[in-house]
Amino acid sequence: MTSENDENKLKQCLQSIIDAISDTINNLTKQTRHSNQKQILRNLPLTIQNLLDDNLASFSSQCRNYIFDALNHYNYNTEAKAFDSAFTVELLDPFRNDLQGRLFLLDACQAAWNGDRSIIETFIRNYPTLKDKSGLYGTTLLYSAARNNHFHIVQYLIQVGKCSVNAQNKDYLEKSHLSTLKATVGSTALHAACFYGHLQIVEYLIQHGADYFILNAAFETPIDNGQPKANIRNFFTNFLVLSYSRDSNVLPKRTILDEIEKNGEYINDCFWEYKPFSHDRWFPFTVDASSRLQKALTIDSNEKLITEIHLKAYREAFNVSIVQFLRWVKNYDQPDNLAWVRCRGSSLLNFHCYSQWQIMFMKHPAGITNSSSPIQTFDMTTTEIQLNSWYKANDKINFLFERTMNYHRKYMTINLNFINNEKITFDFENFTFTNQQNTVEGFLRWIPKLILNDKKLILVNNFQLPSDSDIILLTTSYLKKALLNEAISTNEMNQYNLKYDNVLDEDILDFPNKQPIKGKTLNKFLNVIQGDILREQSDVVVISTSSKSLLESIWQAGGKPLQKSFVAKSKANPKDIVISVTTNGQLPAKAVYFVLWEPNSDSTILSESLEKIVSTVMEKAASENYTSIAFPSIGCGRFGCSINLVAQILIGQFQQQLAKYPIKVSIVIHPDRTDIYNEFQRQINFLQGKSKASRENLMSIAVGQGKIEVKKGDITKQKADVIIGSSSSENLRQGLLEAGGPEVESAYDKENQANPNSLIISTPSGKLPCERIFFLRWEPNKDPEILRQSIIDLIWNVIQNVHSHNYKSIAFPAIGCGEHACSVDIVVKTMVREMKKQIENRKLPWSVTFIIQPNEHNVYDEFCKQLLASSHEPMDYKLPLTWQTSKEDNMRLIVRKNTDEYKSIVTNFDQSMRKKYQEIIRIERIQNERWFMQYLAHARDFQKRLNDNTEKYLYHGCPESAASSIIQDCFNRSFAGVNGTAYGVGVYFSSNAAYSHGFTKPNSNGERFMFLARVLIGKTTIGNASMKTRPVGFDSTTDGNHIYVTYHDAQAYAEYLITYK
What we know:
Largest sheet: 7 strands, mixed
Structural class: alpha/beta
Number of domains: 5
């Protein structure tokens, strides 16, 4: 085994050889005589051999073989101890560069092991040809990173470094030293990730083409390596098709082609089904009919194929075409007598034959019924989608389908370019497909690939068979013979190998979305309790190392052995954020997971760190076969973190992780903190109802005796008493007239000619699901006041006419927000405000729905914002627990230095301000109740509208005079543009204190002032200097990095003032 001393000797030897090459290059540049140059080149191999003679005797065999592997590329003969060919001038630079890379590889492999990305980046940038080479200890960079769960390194190596995802480890030990098979030799990164239970890396590697059937030196696949880990075993069980008709739960050990090569047997594992042309479902054949069909295709490669068989079932007789997979009864020409046939299973596994795949659309928004021949098939180039017809997969897609089956995969996702690049997921267990919105659905099947039996490998069209020709199946055995007889080239054969080496960009390889658990199932796995976390009976107790009180308690309860074990494991694994220590019976729990976490005032960093901890803890618990976890409310103690934000992050992340790992999680809250308990429970309740609201894209509020809704949709499909149109909007008017049909068009033309100046044209509904259609005459205007008044008049006109007809419900389009390019802010605000005002003042029990086109996301957001803006729901907010009572109603209270509140603020401030300040004079907590309550009301609206907490803790630097004004009046619009206008004329904040420092000014005592503020960034977009108000549909602007600009007084609250020098 190589020691650290051996490795250092190896480095010194490599460097000496590199120096010798460099000296040779330098000497050559000084010589002009050809004879001298020749002599210099002849001296180099002698110099290298002398260096080897001086060092190799003291090397381990591993180090010797490492250096030999590098030299062998330049014709070094290890037995003769000499180079077999002379060096040339052109060879010296590549030779030196390779050896420098081999030297750097020693450190790069250690960096991959430790998770040090900067060293790896330098190595990949300078020596890209060595990216897949194994280091001294026989592991590739990718293997080392995957083994130790460095996901960010794995991502970099695959996406940026372009490392081969299936690169195998190579060991440098002598063969005679390998008394047993060494599993790491020949292993890939996927072997390592599976063995150690790193599910996130397993999924990522497979998404990028990792072969889960590749064998290492111990003849193990990654699937074999993952068997002891419950999370990996469950993943492959859900990811792969285990069987069709054989009822097996055993994970496959090899690809189907490898299975055929190994055993050569036909395996009956399929369902035979038929679908009548007029039906939208498949029916099973009888057992006898299935057996006959199975036998018809189970033939040797040299046997002539019987293209048609006659079958009987009960009282019915029918024929089946084996080449077209078509079933018919009596008259072939009658569509009612025809049915399509399919074999749901692998053609290779069952019949050793390759297949041509087909897909059939049963549902498509633009689909039309095939009016031509019922058995006509189409290529994937048709512009109009023919429903209930087969489409032949092109060569690339057919290869992907075949490869998916070869690798036993359940799902494959690709973009079908002939239907507008729609993303389609194919289910190879049920032979169905759908898009993400379920607006496209259909079936798939294969038909056998046929060739002429003339040894030329000419494929035949199954639906246009040549007459009087000998037709046979294209089987694996036929291809093997064709390759031996040189009837097919090795390159042509690659398309039939169906390996992951032939990766095509079309294969997205999405995993089927695991829906977050909710409802009763969520309550079963996730609950919030109050109590002592150390007394919990869970398998695992999680302790944050940042909580001093919990650490002291755990040391006292677990004793010195627990503490010593933690210290030892921390030193051995300094990069791990979760340290697992078994309790050995000292606690009710089986293990303690110590998580290394520090609070952060930046909500983005806080969110990422908490999500990382939850995912790591869940994955680790699953890999160690634990079934229950007790988790503390990390960050909700004395660190100044938002309880609402922490609760939302933790509950949301647990919900996502529980879809992967069904582990019972108890979030344990201290008995004295009822406020934290209530917030966590509220987040669980909110989460259970959240998915429905977001799925419907619907927002609704009560207004007086009625209600106003905003939703995305098609105005022509709304079920309401009245649908509103506009005669001035060509697109809207034409859309309503066409959807309504001739009756509406005729009525509109007649009324328009009779009363050309009428403010409203009322027509019957025609084909629309309403009682009447009102076309209002409305003209846009660029003048804000005229535009505002025209909207007021429009709403009043609608109300009058709807009321006169005694209607109760209205579907209202976003008039003026489309082709007229009016100010959306004015239009929406006025429209919503006036509609609310009319419903409230007139006490109308109406339902008004504003319908927004599905692609108008910003307009939809603006309507939601205005709908919530004046929604006067009662507020029930408590002041922060850190606030102190002040007899003099003082707004500025000193934060004591010995509190966690103070320490947390200083820690985060110091991260970016180090060496930019001398001392912090004081930190004051700003307790302006009036502005804080306004801020919370604003936060409530943001939360309700966006279903997300977008609060950030940001800095704002300013002179002392401005600081006093902000404390009294918060960040009102008088501060707009004070700190610049590059990203909008608003109030500027930054997550980088050093940036905000640039806007402070020292007072006469040299003191500077900076606020730490709560800021609601909401929905943000990149800003520019022309933006004097927030862009429509957005709440703030940004530089895309650390700067945020707000445009509303109550959008930020100055919570702390830091005075420093």
